[in-house]
Specification:
Layout (H helix, E strand, L loop, with lengths): L30 E2 L20 E17 L5 E16 L5 E13 L16 E4 L5 H25 L3 E5 L14 E4 L9 H6 L12 E3 L3 E7 L13 E7 L4 H14 L18 H13 L3 H16 L2
Parallel strand pairs: 2-6, 4-5, 6-7
Antiparallel strand pairs: 1-8, 2-3, 3-4, 7-10, 8-9, 9-10
Length: 314
């Protein structure tokens, strides 16, 4: 008799939402700091009407692969790319996109940056990485995007918005006293001991788990944000919420409860989003707008080519 088989139509471009096993690299046994150390399901109180909600996300695009031919014959790879970050905001009225920031970079491997000449409105920040793999350059582009997300999330939270960042809290200061919520859709490693880890799939829609400590600087819990359907795997529809520990346990629990109360309201649906229900509808809409703000990729490539021709002609 085989176990239950789940079907999860998660686009392969985004990776599977659940890839954790007991021997996953970096597996943790985080301490549960509520409910006597036993993972328990919590039903958050209904969300208050008129809450000021902010969803923060970023996108990035590699627009051209580059090479730099060194005098000794070495060929050094690089890339030209664009990142964008912004927020979807609502205070009870219609959702709107705001605070959009766009940056263009040229990232070369080998530790030495190369500047491209501006082409009309097109300009690029020169950056470099020490590695020699093009993936190192892509990660540098990603860090630019994540840093912008972190700055925006902190500003919105300080202005009184209930702020959720799509993804882990990579670029949010953990000593913060006002909690920002990280929204993690994929699970790459077990975070709890075996007995408590096995209880997580028992969460009902809208229920959160007990709070647990991820090291000294982050509190987290699991939330089933939506119903993925009877054909799905046991972990489908479950996300991890993170908050900086600097806010203190009481404020962290309050922020988690507030977010858990209203996040299910924004879960996506399968006929609109292959990542449903874990990809939030405001985030999906924000991503589309950020791609538009980043401009046309074909025009960006044309501008890079023109810049390279101008540089080589100097």
């Amino acid at each position: 008799m085989h176990g239950r088989i789940g079907v999860e139509p998660f686009d392969v471009g985004y990776g599977a939402s659940f890839a954790a096993t007991s021997d996953s690299p970096g597996a943790l046994e985080c301490e549960i700091v509520e409910d006597g150390g036993v993972l328990t399901a919590h039903d958050p109180a209904p969300a208050a009407p008129g809450d000021r909600l902010a969803f923060v996300d970023g996108t990035m695009r590699t627009e051209a692969r580059l090479t730099r031919n060194e005098p000794d014959g070495t060929v050094t790879p690089g890339l030209a790319g664009t990142w964008a970050a912004g927020a979807a905001l609502t205070d009870g009225a219609r959702m709107r996109v705001d605070h959009v920031e766009v940056g263009r970079v040229v990232v070369f491997c080998g530790g030495a940056p190369t500047s491209l000449p501006d082409q009309g409105p097109w300009s690029w920040q020169p950056l470099a990485v020490e590695g020699i793999d093009l993936d190192d350059a892509r990660q540098r582009l990603q860090r630019q995007m994540r840093a912008a997300e972190g700055r925006l999330a902190e500003r919105l939270c300080d202005d009184g918005w209930l702020t959720v960042v799509d993804g882990p809290l990579f670029n949010v200061r953990r000593e913060r006293t006002t909690p920002i919520v990280g929204y993690v859709k994929t699970h790459h490693r077990p975070m709890l001991d075996e007995a408590n880890w096995a209880r997580v799939p028992g969460l009902g829609v809208g229920q959160r788990s007990s709070l647990f400590a991820m090291g000294d600087d982050t509190y987290a819990c699991y939330l089933r944000v939506g119903d993925p359907g009877p054909w799905s795997s046991a972990w489908a529809g479950i996300v991890r919420l993170e908050v900086p520990a600097g806010a203190g346990r009481a404020d962290a629990i309050a922020a988690i409860d507030a977010a858990a109360a209203w996040l299910p309201r924004y879960a996506s649906v399968a006929y609109r989003d292959p990542r449903a229900p874990v990809n939030l509808a405001p985030i999906a809409g924000l991503e589309k707008d950020l791609h538009r703000y980043a401009g046309d990729g074909a025009l960006a490539l044309r501008a890079v080519r023109a810049a390279v021709l101008a540089l080589n002609a100097e």
